[in-house]
C-alpha cells in the first residue's frame, strides 16, 4: 500500500552573488535621480571615504538587503580591492563570504582565504601575459591629458581613472584588442578603465562559495563586462538598464534586462532576488 503522506520538500539553499558599484550601491554621479526633487527617494549612505559620503542605496533598498541576508547567503561580489570593499557598510547581517578583486580574493568572515588566492595567482601565471607588461603598455600609451590616476590593484590587475569627456574612444578599443591577444580583458566603467586577466573571474569564486555553502540555487546581478561571466554562471541573473552590458544590449538565457537605471535599479534588483528566494 502506497504511503499517502507526502514527504516535505525542503526549500533550496540560495546563494545571491551581486556586484556592488552601479548595481546595488551608487555614487552621487550615478544615482540617476530623474524624478522631481520632491519625489526623490530617501537615501542611505553606505560608504564614507576621506570623511565624505561616497556611495548610497535608497532606504527601501537597504531594508530589502537586510531581509535578503536573513533568507539567503548574500555574497558581495566586486572588482574593488579588499581595502576599498571594507569601507562599505552594507545593511543586514555581515556576509560570511565576500568576493573581492574580481575573484582574486575570497574573504571568509572578513579574512582572505590564502589557498584560494594562491590557486588564482598560479592560474594567472600559466594562462596570460604578466601584469607588468600590461601596466607598462597602459602607462606608455595613455595620454596624461585625460589620465588622472594609474592604479595597481592587489598585484592582480590595473586600472586608470580618467576624464571621460576627454577620453578618445579609439584608445579604449585599441587597448581591448591589444589586451585580448595577451589573455586580458578591458572594461570601461564610469571614470575607470580596467585591464583584468581573463582567468580572474567572479564566476569561479562564486562557484567555490556555492560548493562550500551547498547552495542549490544561485542568483546574480551586475552591470559591467566584468559581470557577464558571473551572470552566465548563475541559475538566474539580472542586469540594470545602465552600464556596459545595457549599452551593448547584452543578454542570454536566464538573464533579465531591467528597464530601471541608477539607484532605482538597485532597489528593483533586490526585489527580484527576494521574489525568487521566496
TrEMBL record:
Report if keyword Protease is assigned: no
Q: Which UniProt keywords apply?
A: Hydrolase
Task: Please provide, alphabetically and separated by semicolons, the GO molecular function terms listed in this UniProt record.
Answer: hydrolase activity
Which InterPro entries does the entry link to?
A: HAD-like_sf, HAD_sf, TPP-like
Name under which the protein is recorded: HAD family hydrolase
**Which species is this record about?**
Streptomyces phaeochromogenes
Q: What is the lineage of its organism?
A: Bacteria, Bacillati, Actinomycetota, Actinomycetes, Kitasatosporales
Amino acid at each position: 500500500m502506497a504511503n499517502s503522506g507526502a514527504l516535505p520538500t525542503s526549500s533550496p539553499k540560495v546563494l545571491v552573488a551581486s556586484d556592488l558599484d552601479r548595481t546595488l550601491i551608487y555614487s552621487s554621479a550615478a544615482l540617476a535621480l530623474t524624478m522631481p526633487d520632491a519625489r526623490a527617494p530617501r537615501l542611505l549612505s553606505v560608504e564614507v571615504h576621506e570623511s565624505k559620503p561616497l556611495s548610497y542605496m535608497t532606504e527601501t533598498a537597504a531594508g530589502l538587503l537586510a531581509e535578503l541576508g536573513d533568507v539567503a547567503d548574500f555574497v558581495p561580489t566586486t572588482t574593488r580591492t579588499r581595502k576599498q570593499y571594507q569601507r562599505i557598510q552594507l545593511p543586514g547581517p555581515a556576509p560570511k563570504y565576500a568576493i573581492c578583486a574580481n575573484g582574486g580574493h575570497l574573504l571568509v568572515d572578513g579574512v582572505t582565504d590564502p589557498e584560494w588566492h594562491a590557486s588564482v595567482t598560479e592560474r594567472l601565471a600559466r594562462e596570460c601575459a604578466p601584469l607588468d607588461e600590461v601596466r607598462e603598455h597602459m602607462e606608455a600609451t595613455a595620454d596624461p591629458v585625460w589620465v588622472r590616476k594609474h592604479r595597481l590593484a592587489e598585484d592582480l590587475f590595473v586600472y586608470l581613472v580618467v576624464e571621460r569627456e576627454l577620453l578618445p574612444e579609439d584608445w579604449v578599443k585599441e587597448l581591448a584588442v591589444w589586451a585580448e591577444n595577451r589573455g586580458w580583458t578591458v572594461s570601461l566603467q564610469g571614470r575607470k578603465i580596467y585591464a583584468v586577466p581573463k582567468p580572474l573571474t567572479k564566476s569561479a569564486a562564486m562557484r567555490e562559495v556555492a560548493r562550500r555553502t551547498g547552495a542549490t540555487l544561485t542568483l546574480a546581478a551586475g552591470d559591467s563586462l566584468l559581470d557577464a561571466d558571473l551572470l552566465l554562471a548563475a541559475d538566474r541573473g539580472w542586469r540594470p538598464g545602465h552600464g556596459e552590458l545595457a549599452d551593448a544590449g547584452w543578454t542570454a538565457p536566464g538573464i533579465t534586462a531591467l528597464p530601471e537605471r541608477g539607484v532605482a535599479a538597485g532597489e528593483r534588483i533586490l526585489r527580484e532576488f527576494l521574489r525568487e528566494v521566496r
